[in-house]
Amino acid sequence: MTNRNSLLGRSRPADRLSKADREALERATAEPAPTQAPTKPEQAKTAPAQPAPAKAAPAGNTAPPANVGRDGTVRQDQLKFHWTSECPACGFKVAGSGNPQPGQRLARCGRCKLNIFLKGK
Q1: Are the C-beta atoms of residues 109 and 92 closer than 8 Å to each other?
Q2: What percentage of the chain carries pLDDT values higher than 90?
Q3: What is the model's pTM?
Q4: Do the Cβ atoms of 64 and 49 come closer than 8 Å?
Q5: Quick one: pLDDT at residue 115?
Q6: Integer Cα distance of 8 and 67 in angstroms
Q7: Helix ranges, 1-121 (H)
Q8: β partners of residue 11
């Protein structure tokens, strides 16, 4: 990496334009300012400038947008439940999923290694 400037995308000094070349290029590309046609004083006082009316939507575009909500259904066995709880011994948060039944083992605490069961039965 002897020439760091070329790696960064910078131009080399030999590729740069001189100040005189840049000024000549700016003068050549500069467009003359547009001239306004003189208006009559009577027209300027009596006719204020009004914006163009907005265009109406085309009559054929009556379909609902694509991002409008639609209805869908799922079966009960497709539902997924996520639950969180605190360990009764140490207060560490444990989480699981599903629909547990009373007496079923829910989780094992990651901190104190306690097996946690759902109350019941």
Answers
A1: yes
A2: 16
A3: 0.37
A4: no
A5: 92
A6: 44
A7: 4-7, 19-29, 41-46
A8: none
